[in-house]
User: What shape does this take?
Amino acid sequence: MDFFAAKNLTMKFGGLVAVNDFNISLKRGEIVGLIGPNGAGKTTVFNMVAGYYEPTEGTITFIKNIINGKKANEITKLGIARTFQNIRLFTELSVVENVMIAYHCRVKSSFLGAVLRFPLYRREEKMMHEGAMNILDEVGLASLAKERSDSLPYGQQRRLEIARALATGPELLLLDEPAAGMNPQETQDLVDLVLRIRDNHDLTVFLIEHDMKFVMQICERMKVIDYGTTIAEGTPEEIQNNERVIKAYLGEA
Amino acid sequence: MEKNYPNNNEVGARLDIHHRRNQILSLLAIGVGFVLLYFAQKYLSSYQVRILNNCGLFITLAVSYNLINGVTGQFSLEPNAFVAIGAYTSALLTLTPAEKALSFIIEPIIWPLSVIQTPFLVSLLAAGVVTAICGFCMGFAVFRVRGDYLAIVTLGFGEVVRVIANNTQTITNGPLGLKGLENYTTVWWTWGLAIITIFYVSRLVRSSYGMAMKAVKYDEAAAEAVGINAFRHKMLAFTSSAFFEGIGGGLLAHLITTISPTLFTFFLTFNLLIIIVVGGLGSTTGAIIAAILVTWGGEFLRFVEEPINIFFIHIPAIPGMRMVIFSLLLVLMMIFARHGIMGTREFNWNWVVDKVNGLKILSRNRG
Assistant: This one.
């Protein structure tokens, strides 16, 4: 059985078919890209996988669990973490708090235990803080831990979002346009970061991206969708030369 | 130079090296506060003690209301319902069976209530628990909606409770209300409860549960993405808030000694809303300061309603003038301090100690 598989996923919003019969299976440790023109339905696929939408048809399995129909927070606990296309940090909280929050779903103390600060909660709080600092160290934000998260420059906010997703302890990481709005240097740093965290945390990465240079460098396999339908899949080289893909992106000559 | 202390409302506050010192300072402050209260209730007039009681009570109500509205960011308008439930519960428990038989003149009170009588403390706890249960049940319904809709449905619940109180003759005595309650509420009760509420709420806010509540406020979708069950945390905030507002209601009932449904109109909620907005949504410190300012300020401004003679100009008494000035102050606040007195900041001993040290250095340099 596959590590992660989506079979015949279809999402309809009234009469609009946003995603039609989408199939994918991921092996542990892969980095797979999902590309396609604007409005192709890429984020809709992510929203179904992460539990924000319930697919109209089809099933999603993740390590032997059928996860479609589960709520977003349950799916996160099972080990799928995501980042958002438009950065969604908890703006008024500090950088380290943003990451610590991600540990909260694994806190075992009850709220009364937390209010009265029982020993178990104290230990957990210490672990949350240390864990968050380690992850910030890994993504290179440790020195900014006490800053307000919205005071960071754009590229670092992206990194913080990835750090926050990592802190939930995922096995599958969904990155929605991680390189959007980054300059070439930042994009290059991001490539290194994604490869590094994949190795350090035994992650499988499934990502959406428009920056072709980024995708070609990082993805081992990719899938192209247009108007909700899969039009191509294969290695980056195969995709680059695929006629249907070129047509979808550039229009017909 | 600004020192980079962890903010006191942050989870990392416990890792602050001054944590132990700050705890001692807090305890000292509470001790001094109670000594002051002792002298206040001994030497002040009963009118002034009454204001003091109101301040303590409104601190409790505002701080707990702020937990759901400010910290968790769920704009709701139900505290009058919670206060009413708490007030009726505790009042029905402290009245003696004979008193109840005497007040229920239209229809007699139903069985278990007609014979029960409990001490004041038990009745308060019962008020808290009953209100928390009501809040818990209500939460299932109201948290299916968000934003403006949440405000509207909770407002509706507030009215529902009032109407129920008006019409259940055999339980609440309807529009006649409950009279002749023992005047149990003293400054010790009101301020004691205020301290407990502040302790509970600020500890909760600083714990990871509080952080999760803030996460729900800033971005619910992102909160779900990091594994936070938004519904559960809203319920936690709402039920906690109901518990303390219920106890507050019990104290209120035994402070004014007569309760009737007209006491628990939307106006009460509106007052609390003003308090938490003036204080700064999400700031416990702000809620405390604003509760005192609004309660005491409202009384202080009474002088404007009396006839005033300034040299040759005679201003006649204008009833309601207080409210005009009050609204003027609110408008000024909206213009100059849109985030309220404290914004989302909290009181922090480190800041105080820094200022005191700063003054010391300044005076040494001068000398």
